[in-house]
From TrEMBL:
Residue ranges occupied by any Peptidoglycan beta-N-acetylmuramidase NamZ N-terminal domain in the UniProt entry: 23-212
InterPro entries assigned to the protein according to its UniProt record, in alphabetical order: NamZ, NamZ_C, NamZ_N
Domain Peptidoglycan beta-N-acetylmuramidase NamZ C-terminal: 216-345
Gene3D superfamilies: 3.90.1150.140, Uncharacterised protein PF07075, DUF1343
UniProt name for this protein: DUF1343 domain-containing protein
One Pfam family this sequence matches: NamZ_N
Length: 364
């Protein structure tokens, strides 16, 4: 069955959202199936768009991680563009002074670490403070809606890679997540089922998320940002390629011996052009997912961390950011004490069970 996104449905039926001046939180992933930008399609449908608001990486996606493009005028629509990145509270509220209704249309990748959902959350909170309707134009979760992995974020470890207690791989669409996190209206998907996976057409949602395979491994290998290994930023295979100057020929055989489902490991050498170890030749491992249904990204990453900890005790190191990425200090403490971090894996009983969401929402 053909999937129809919330943006496509709204472009065809402008009556799905409240009346008033519309502000659209979006970026280059906000497109219709024919790749027309949502902003252009909504304007053509006669919807009263008044402003655009961009997240991390910017409206056009030219900015690297931890940056945005700033403000200006969108050449496609002539609308003013405002930058939401790293803005909260009154500063964020003030951005929305020229609109009456906020729309959100950005492609997520199904992982708590990805900042677009926290841009949505922050803007959703701002809309609640301002008494303004908040509408999510829903899109598929490219990892599907059945599998959930990793612990819930714990209080005290909130950050822009996790504002609220959701799992690392959360199994929700952005619309479902918005309903879970606060007050929202959702222009829902049509033709998407929970056991679906992938997104067509695939628009790389950020500079270091080039392929669907990157998104699939990211719930696990994103944790390597909290270590002194390169997570492959600055290569053509970020998050699929992991390495450091001290990794030798013992790692790949050790990982193969673990017989992890759905994935193969290959020794590789690479030289990042930016980020960790830029310009240095590194040795490491590339993950090759051969069965996406069997593959467990979080379990796989925890086994990799355990092996690195065991093989390179004098070189392997953890960074302070690991606690925020994991959502608590339990992973760091397990590695520091030599315990098996795989034992930390639990499926939150109050999240998704047997492919059924354990909450009720009122999508449109």
């Amino acid at each position: 069955m053909v999937v129809r996104t919330g943006a496509q449905r709204l472009a065809e039926d402008p009556g799905l959202v409240p009346n008033g001046r519309l502000g659209l939180i979006t970026n280059f992933t906000g497109v219709l199936p024919d790749l027309t930008p949502t902003s252009v399609a909504l304007r053509a449908a006669g919807l009263p768009l008044a402003a655009l608001f961009g997240p991390e990486h910017g409206l056009r996606g030219t900015a690297q991680a931890g940056a945005s493009e700033g403000e200006g005028v969108d050449p496609d629509t002539g609308l003013p563009v405002f930058d939401t990145y790293r803005r909260q509270g009154r500063e964020l509220d003030d951005l929305f002074s020229g609109v009456d209704v906020l729309l959100f249309d950005i492609q997520d990748i199904g992982t708590r670490l990805y900042t677009y959902i926290w841009t949505m959350y922050d803007c959703q909170q701002a809309a609640a403070r301002l008494g303004m309707p908040f509408v999510v134009l829903d899109r598929p979760n490219p990892l599907g809606g059945v599998r959930v992995e990793g612990p819930l974020l714990q209080p005290g470890f909130e950050s822009f890679v996790g504002r609220a207690p959701i799992p690392l791989r959360h199994g929700l669409t952005v619309g479902e997540l918005a309903l879970q996190l606060g007050a929202a209206t959702v222009v829902s998907l049509e033709g998407w089922s929970r056991d679906s996976s992938g997104v067509e057409p695939w628009v790389p949602p950020s500079p270091n998320m080039p392929t669907p395979e990157t998104a699939l491994v990211y719930p696990g290998t994103g944790l390597f940002e909290g270590t002194n290994l390169s997570e492959g930023r600055g290569t053509t295979r970020p998050f699929e390629t992991i390495g450091a100057p001290y990794v030798d020929d013992r790692l790949v055989p050790a990982l193969r011996a673990c017989e992890l489902p759905g994935v193969m490991f290959r020794r590789t050498w690479f030289e990042p052009v930016f980020h960790k170890y830029a310009g240095q030749a590194l040795s490491g491992v590339q993950l090759h997912v051969v069965d996406r249904e069997a593959f467990e990204p979080v379990r796989t990453a925890l086994v990799m961390l355990r092996m690195l900890n065991e093989l390179y005790p004098d070189d392997f190191d953890l960074l302070p950011s690991l606690d925020k990425l994991w959502g608590s200090d339990s992973l760091r403490k397990a590695l520091e004490s030599g315990d098996d971090p795989v034992e930390l894996l639990t499926t939150p009983a109050d999240w998704v069970r047997d492919g059924v969401l354990l909450y009720e929402g009122d999508g449109r």
